[in-house]
Amino acid sequence: MHPVLKLVAQRIALGLLLLLAVSAVIFLGVEALPGDTAQAILGQSATPQALANLREKMGLDQPAMVRYFHWLGGILTGDLGKALTNGQDIAQAIGQRLGNTLFLAACAGAISVPLAILLGLVAARYNGRWPDKLISGITLSTISLPEFVAAYFVIYLLTQLIPIFNPVAMVFPGMGFWEKLHAVALPVIVLVLVVLAHMMRMTRAAILNVMQSAYIETAELKGLSPMQVIWRHAFPNAIAPIVSVVVLNLAYLVVGVVVVEVVFGYNALGQFLVDHVAKRDLPVVQAVGVIFAGVYISLNILADVIAIVANPRLRHPR
Amino acid sequence: MPEPLLDIRNLRIEATSYPPGEPPRHVVLVDDVSVSVEKGKVLGLIGESGAGKSTIGLSAMAYGRGGVRLTGGQILLNGRDIREAPVGALRNLRGKEVTYVAQSAAAAFNPARKLMEQVIETSLAHGVMPKAEAEARARSLFAQLGLPNPDTFGDRYPHQVSGGQLQRAMTAMALCPKPDLVIFDEPTTALDVTTQIDVLAAIKRAIHETGVAALYITHDLAVVAQVADDILVLRHGKKVEYGSTDHIINRPEQTYTQALVSVRSIDHVEKTAAKPVLTVSNVTARYRGTHFDVLKNVSVDVAPGQTLAIVGESGSGKSTLARAITGLLPPTSGRITFAGRDLSRDLAGRTKDDLRELQMIYQMADVAMNPRQTVGTIIGRPLEFYFGLKGEEKRKRIQELLDQIEMGKGYENRYPAELSGGQKQRVCIARALAAKPKLIICDEVTSALDPLVADGILKLLLELQAQQQVAYLFITHDLATVKAIADKIAVMYKGEVRRYGSKTDVLTPPFDDYTDLLLSSVPEMRLGWLEEVLAHRKMESAGN
Amino acid sequence: MKMPLSALIGLVLTGLFLFVAIFAQFLAPYPIDSAVGGVWESPSSTYLLGTDTIGRDILSRLIYGAQVTIFVAAASSILAFSLGAILGFVAATKGGWVDQVLSRLVDLVMAIPSLIIALVVLSVLPLNLTVLILVMGVLDATRVFRLSRAVAVDITVMDYVEAARLRGEGGGWIIFREILPNALSPLVAEFGLRFIFAVLFISTLSFLGLGIQPPLTDWGGMVKENKDALVYGKSAALMPAMAIAALAISVNLVADWILSRTTSLKGGRGA
């Protein structure tokens, strides 16, 4: 087998193993913590008999390992169990919300990725001069803001000072694409702000790192123009680090959406998760937690795979 | 007299460095240097690191690394002053009139592109010749430089060929656009000595056959003596001496040049064997998790007051042998006896006396001392640790040791960063001596130092040996050093001892094949040495 | 040694925040939890920053909030540091299975976004200060572990550490006398960054309603309480938001400066 394929296969296998371990942490780790689901449902005043009945009904009297494999099997077949609070089927409740979350994240990604690469290139090109200092200064401040603070600054700016948007973002099934897009404009702006800063700073660092290589000096000493140097020598080597920077930062979106959805009352997975943490509805929290962790880990695997494939040393072995 | 191709007059180069957390520092790198190169001639620039030789070399392309600025004088290339030429004009001459061969070809080639694309890139970018012609020229240069399969060599990526081959490919890249001048910046320094001679010969032949002029930059006078017509000796950015190669090598006028030429002023008489203090018998070792022996059945010994030199190229296992003796790499088989007792294989199993009596001095004194400890702490710690010395007693002993390494008073409270390279290595010697050792392992202790400083360190080591009867295990790749201090020599190759005995025996023919190759590859400080060796080797291979 | 203006501003502001946090009880003009004015009053000479959703003085709550926010963030980053740095150094110097077990465990925790793991854990545990500090501290310790292990691994391959080993020095000397002094400046800068992260983290949790619980308050919680004010054009929610931003930026400026001063391992004694 080609060594690249082998490495990629290894990396994916390792990722799947990690995913399995993470599911175990989310299920068994939480089980090990002090706290009792049955007690949580029935409250402090419940009689021991009622508690025992509920535990039996929910299968809580079985050993943790047995319940874990049962739960894991359920996840793999699309059965996420029932919510404690209202007995609703979790998979069904998640379906539509997951779509909304992905729509929000995709919009934010589609804007921030090209913008971050562009700004990163500009900052690297004018390294140490005013465009770099300006971009770096602004991004340093946005990095220092938690998502919800950035969100309220944006809301204040765009609904009060310059009232062009509605502070609540609602999407309904049946809305048209453009309608939806207008509805999510504010949360998308906030997410872009948050992700852009990290992504741009890391892109800049990746390009500067490549520009410091000895082969860039060689290219300059060949009398090539700056554009030729960047295009022929820096670019092919910067692709891998930039792509992995971009993918890694998309992982920030995973956390960002949770908070931003709450701020804007956007009916999607993040808000669903926070709601059910407050209600102490463990099965829902575990299911949503595994989905978020799964997306996050998959993005990380993707970043590694791209880095492997883009490495000329691995593509063309000795 | 014909007009020179390159004429540098009263060149002054300055730089501003920005050390982190400190105010910017202004330094003069090159001061009032004048030198010229005629068409088809080779000028050698020689000096220690920091002498400004690379900076002068790059100034021939009006290029300054980092914050380097060419602030004064003239750089006349083909009669035009290029020092303050506009960027566009410079771009036109870089790669077309002047090309550059870097020290580390491995880093200077773009890892993402095939060799051929990179070799012909300059010719195409400057429109020197069409693609087909450039490729044909590249292939013939590959052949000329002795590269394997010259027709397909260019289809490979940089990481797919060896270091010596890359260095030759870089030379081909520099010669391909038919420049007037090539700058060779330490092109063989990163190579092993047996590879160096081949690359050196290839470069020399290529210079001759293409008739190009060259600036050859190196720290090794013996190397430059083989290729240069003229030599400029530099120190601290200033000219020391400038003349024909014959003049510099055979009739140097300045003390500094004389010291460079004589290399080692030490005349060491070999001592006769005595009862050994360290005996290594049949030691075999491998790194954990590998299936390859890095030491194979090694047996050597050394007596009190004597020096055993371990000679070899990188990868020969000479430093691994030191790790096995110190217990950092436990041998898989074999025995090590020291001062009459069996040494535990593992560091953890050794007694405090085992550790105390076996000390080590490293190549890079810089990283061998904790930058956050004062000289007093560095030398005082073994006194405290092994002998329990404290207070006034310890302070007195530290001063005694400082006197022994000829550093005198006032150093106790200094930090390593405030010392010169030679002083740092002396402090490391004092730290080893503080333990009152029976054996000191010296791992390339002089190879990072300037020749004059290295000489001083070697003399100090020999004096201390005469006084204290300490034995040295001296690891080095430098045969001149070996000749200067060794009583016994072991030549190592691929983890094995190839030749072992007293200095006279080892250095007297008949040699085995490898020792012959190694000894004959070490550049000698005389004109015509390279040709002699090549002719000799040709004869031998014809004889076989 | 000259200090850049940005670092000076950062240092002064950070000091000011600390001062306010420590002496909150003496500085706050009104009690933390009593309605002293009308709902969402605008800033006036009586209520310098106005009043909140049920008429409490915002400045006073901001000052008390500073105490809680900074205390929780500082406590969790100190915990993260002690735990992460010590384990990181041990992993780097011991190597072998100790290193393997610790490193894989950290990989596992870091494979899940901290907020997600915190939410999952907090859905089971009681919400009080101790639990919050422990959860945040342990999660953050994984990042400190990575950094200190990496820094220590770089230092342990230095010849001076090998020289100490060959001398027969024990683990204590090697960690505290050889490694720590050389690892200090990157770690101090990292402490600043971890502290900011902890401020942002606790604020976010409180904003989501899963952090500090009444009657205590912190800045994130204050934003949550007053978020509706924004719709009516009142700035009440922006005050705590700005406080968070100001604290984070000033600590960031100081950390940046320390990081830029960090000398290489080989040269100089710098800081």
UniProtKB/TrEMBL annotation, chain A:
| Membrane topology term | Multi-pass membrane protein
From the Swiss-Prot or TrEMBL record, state where the protein is found.
Answer: Cell membrane
**Residue ranges of every copy of the ABC transmembrane type-1 domain listed in the record:** 98-303
PROSITE patterns assigned to the protein according to its UniProt record, in alphabetical order: ABC_TM1
Record keywords, A-Z:
Cell membrane, Membrane, Transmembrane, Transmembrane helix, Transport
> Which Gene Ontology terms describe the biological processes this protein takes part in?
transmembrane transport
Q: Which residues cross the membrane?
A: 12-30, 102-122, 134-157, 177-197, 238-264, 284-310
- Cellular component per GO? plasma membrane
Database matches in Pfam families:
BPD_transp_1 (PF00528), BPD_transp_1_N (PF19300)
> Which InterPro entries does this chain map to?
BPD_transp_1_N, MetI-like, MetI-like_sf
Tell me the protein family, please: Belongs to the binding-protein-dependent transport system permease family.
Record-given protein name: ABC transporter permease
Q: Which organism is it from?
A: Fuscibacter oryzae
From TrEMBL, chain B:
PANTHER family linked to this entry:
TRANSPORT ATP-BINDING PROTEIN
Keywords from UniProt, A to Z, are: ATP-binding, Nucleotide-binding, Transport
Residue span, ABC transporter domain: 11-261, 278-519
Q: What topology does it adopt in the membrane?
A: Peripheral membrane protein
Write down the superkingdom of origin: Bacteria
Q: What is this protein called?
A: ABC transporter ATP-binding protein
Q: What InterPro entries does UniProt report for this protein, alphabetically?
A: AAA+_ATPase, ABC_transp_ATP-bind, ABC_transporter-like_ATP-bd, ABC_transporter-like_CS, Oligopep_ABC_C, P-loop_NTPase
Q: What is the organism field in this record?
A: Fuscibacter oryzae
BP term (GO), one: transmembrane transport
From TrEMBL, chain C:
Q: Which PANTHER family match?
A: OLIGOPEPTIDE TRANSPORT SYSTEM PERMEASE PROTEIN APPC, PEPTIDE ABC TRANSPORTER PERMEASE PROTEIN
**Organism the protein comes from:** Fuscibacter oryzae
For this protein's source organism, the top of the classification is: Bacteria, Pseudomonadati, Pseudomonadota, Alphaproteobacteria, Rhodobacterales
- Please list every transmembrane segment annotated in the UniProt record, as residue ranges: 62-91, 111-139, 195-216, 236-259
Which family is this protein grouped under? Belongs to the binding-protein-dependent transport system permease family.
Q: Per the record, GO CC terms?
A: plasma membrane
Residue runs in coiled coils: none
Q: Which domain of life is it from?
A: Bacteria
Pfam families, A to Z: BPD_transp_1
Q: What membrane topology is annotated for this entry?
A: Multi-pass membrane protein
ABC transmembrane type-1 domain sequence ranges: 66-255
Q: Which UniProt keywords apply?
A: Cell membrane, Membrane, Transmembrane, Transmembrane helix, Transport
Q: Please report the name of this protein according to its UniProt entry.
A: ABC transporter permease
